[in-house]
Amino acid sequence: MVGERRLNEEEVSAMQGSRSGKVAIWFGVLILGCTLGTDLLGLAAGSEDLMYLGALWALILTLIFTLLPPQRREYLRMLRMHHPGKLRWYCSALLISGGPVIVSFLVAWSMHLVEAPACPQLSCFLGTSGAPAFSSLTSNLLLYLPFLFLFALFEEMAWRGFLQPRLSRWLGLKSALLITGLIWGLWHYGWFIWGHYYPGGELIIDMLMFTLDTVLESVIMGWILLRGESLWPLVLYHGASNSIWELCNAYFRIKHAGWVYLAGESSIINLVIWGIIVVFLWRRLPRSERQVEAMA
């Protein structure tokens, strides 16, 4: 009887994993297809506003896949937005996301690859290097930073809230983290086509470095989600990373050839720091879904 019951539990787990895998595949295909398709339409129409709106597919598809099925209550709980989590994970998120970015810009500054112009007025610092789309927002950091955190929330609902848990049920946590990071990186490729990610660098190299960045950070953020049991520290992680990069990018606005590979969001320095953290965390990640549940 015990053997039969264990077999039945394994069968149920396998069925749930298979179902979660199908949902994850559909979600991944749709979010990449809809977003990149909208980006290409924006490129063809010469409309960057359309491209910004394309980023909303992360929120739209997450809400559709979460709220329409009859298991909506379970799916809402899986987003892990119902409780804030512990303070230490917010501190960890802020330190790990923003620290390497600041360090990379300081190193680039010490090597004279980036410079801060003499500017006695605060207004000189408040401008961004953002795209002209939604210029009323992107032209001023005081307006633009909340906008970055809002879109960080939309993305984290999609990547760590919806996609990662289903991939984990299907393939295990480690594979889920790597695949989530890969899809997360591919989702941004439209921005590279427009030339707003790391202008001045080589396109293919920039895209490869950025994809490596999202895969590495996906492992780190997956660990924070696993131990912190809340999506909100990851929203802070994502929003702080984007905001600190914008602040540094706006302050060190004089740039010289090669700066992007030392001080960019996916710079060599950042990749090395995040890579070391991933090596430290990788062996500590659970292998099976049961181990994941035991650690949660």
Automatic annotation (TrEMBL):
Pfam families: Rce1-like. It comes from the Bacteria. The keyword Nucleus does not apply. GO terms for biological process: CAAX-box protein maturation; proteolysis. The keyword Endoplasmic reticulum does not apply. Residues 140-243 form the CAAX prenyl protease 2/Lysostaphin resistance protein A-like domain. This is CPBP family intramembrane metalloprotease. It comes from Ktedonosporobacter rubrisoli.
